[in-house]
Design goal:
95 residues; 2 helices; alpha+beta; elongated; 4-stranded mixed β-sheet
Length: 95
Amino acid sequence: MTPSINAVGFTLEPKQSEMIESKLKRIAYADDLIVDLLMKIKQDKAYVFDTTVNFKWGTQAHVSGEDFDFGAALNKMMDVLDNKIKKEKDKVQEK
C-alpha cells in the first residue's frame, strides 16, 4: 500500500503526521489488498479528511470524516475506512 497524504490550506505538523501514520497501522491487515491510499486533508472551520482507496481488483472506495478537532476527524474517517475495507475484503472472499 502506498499512502499519499496531502494537506490543503494548512501545513501538517510533525505531530499530526505521526498521528496519521499510527492510525494507518490500524488497516495494516489490508496492505496486500490495497494498491494506494489517497488522503486529502482540508482545514476550513473544521478538519475534513477525504480518502480514496484503490483496491487490487479495480474497486475504489471513498470515505470522509469531519470534525473541529484533528484527531476526532481522523478517527471518524478511520472508523468508516476500516468498515469499508472489511466489507470489500468479505465481498472478494465470497467470490
